[in-house]
Amino acid sequence: MVNFKDLMDAAGGSFEPMPKGPVDAKVTAAEATKTSNGKTMYKMTWSVLSGPNANRKVWGNQVISPESPPALGIFFRQMAAMGLGSDYFASNPSEEQVARDLVGREATLMLDQKEYQGTLRNEIKDIRKLAGGLPGGA
Fold first, then answer.
1. What gap in Å lies between CA 106 and CA 129, rounded to an integer?
2. What is the per-residue pLDDT across 15-39, written as a single tens digit (0 to 9) for each?
3. Are the C-beta atoms of 111 and 18 separated by less than 8 Å?
4. Hey, CA dihedral for 128, 134, 137, 138, is it positive or negative?
């Protein structure tokens, strides 16, 4: 028999979106994939490190848009906030290597809330260097 209370406890309790604002989090999973139009995209799962939402999950994607220098600037700035800076990318890592190297990285996420298919969800608006720590935490 399924114990739904235990399953809800394992899921982390609250299913409401977290409040807007900063949370410190760690990448627990990352995958290199492609968008529907063929761009490289990194799908990341984050886990909140502390506070009332500790261990809650947040999902976000980072897309490489070669046709847009401003979007590329945001991508590389956010990667640098996680400790993958210009020296790292100058070595021309594979897409899969970047995904592997994202796991374990820590940063401050700026959360917002957005409605998606009728449900209010968290959205990562920005990724910043973790305050008081080394970039990336790894």
1. 8
2. 789 999 999 999 999 999 999 999 9
3. yes
4. positive
Q: Which two tokens stand for residue 13?
A: 């309790």
In order of 5, 44, 96, 107, the CA distances from 70 in angstroms are 47, 21, 24, 21
pLDDT tens digit sequence for 36-51 = 999 999 999 999 999 9
Q: Inform me whether the pLDDT recorded for 100 exceeds 90.
A: yes
What is the three-state SS of the chain?
CCCHHHHHHHCCCCCCCCCCEEEEEEEEEEEEEECCCCCEEEEEEEEECCCCCCCCEEEEEEECCCCCHHHHHHHHHHHHHCCCCHHHHHCCCCHHHHHHHHCCCEEEEEEEEEEECCEEEEEEEEEECCCCCCCECC
